[in-house]
């Protein structure tokens, strides 16, 4: 059976989740999540997004599941979000940096 090919245009981010007052590094980004979900469903996936060089450890496992193409950027140019989960289930954003993603044409 042929696996479908899929192009995801979106991005990845380097997120910090604050859980019980402790920061935890986490991969993020709707493009990355969509690409990984499609790969998990059996598609051969290429993601078009700013690609960090060098690849941060937290994002490196994605390369086992998809082909990541796009302009090379330093890791500090990736989007970053710092998000805290509140006891009532709501979210609080402390820091938002959109990085190189808005510059893609």
Structure explained in plain terms:
With 105 residues, the protein is mostly beta strands. It has one helix and nine strands. It has one helix at residues 30-40, and strands spanning 5-9, 13-19, 22-28, 44-48, 51-52, 67-69, 72-73, 80-85, 91-97. A hairpin with a 5-residue loop joins strand 8 and strand 9 (91-97).
- Series of H and E elements: EEEHEEEEEE
Q: Assess the beta-strand content as a share of residues.
A: 35-45%
Structural class: mainly beta
The value of Rg in angstroms is: 15 Å
Number of strands: 9
* Helix segment tally: 1
| General form | globular
Uncertain stretches of 5 or more adjacent residues = none
End-to-end Cα distance: 35 Å
Mean pLDDT: 90
Largest sheet: 4 strands, mixed
Percent of residues in helices comes to 10-25%
Q: Name the strands of the widest sheet in spatial order.
A: 3-2-8-9
Précis, in short:
With 105 residues, the chain is mostly beta strands. The chain is 10% helix and 42% strand. A 4-stranded mixed sheet has the order 3-2-8-9. Strands 1-4-6 form a 3-stranded parallel sheet, covered by helices on one side.
Keyword list:
mainly beta; 105 residues
Layout of helices and strands, plus pairs?
Blueprint (H helix, E strand, L loop, with lengths): L4 E5 L3 E7 L2 E7 L1 H11 L3 E5 L2 E2 L14 E3 L2 E2 L6 E6 L5 E7 L8
Parallel strand pairs: 1-4, 2-8, 4-6, 5-7
Antiparallel strand pairs: 2-3, 8-9
């Amino acid at each position: 059976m042929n696996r479908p090919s899929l192009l995801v245009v979106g991005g990845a981010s380097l997120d910090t989740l604050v859980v019980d007052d402790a920061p935890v590094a986490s991969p993020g980004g709707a493009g990355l999540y969509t690409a990984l979900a499609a790969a998990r469903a059996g598609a051969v996936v290429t993601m078009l997004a700013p690609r960090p060089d060098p690849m941060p450890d937290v994002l490196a496992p994605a390369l086992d599941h998809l082909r990541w193409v796009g302009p090379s950027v330093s890791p500090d140019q990736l989007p970053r979000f710092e998000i805290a989960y509140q006891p009532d289930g709501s979210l609080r954003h402390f820091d938002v940096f959109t990085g190189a993603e808005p510059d893609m044409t």
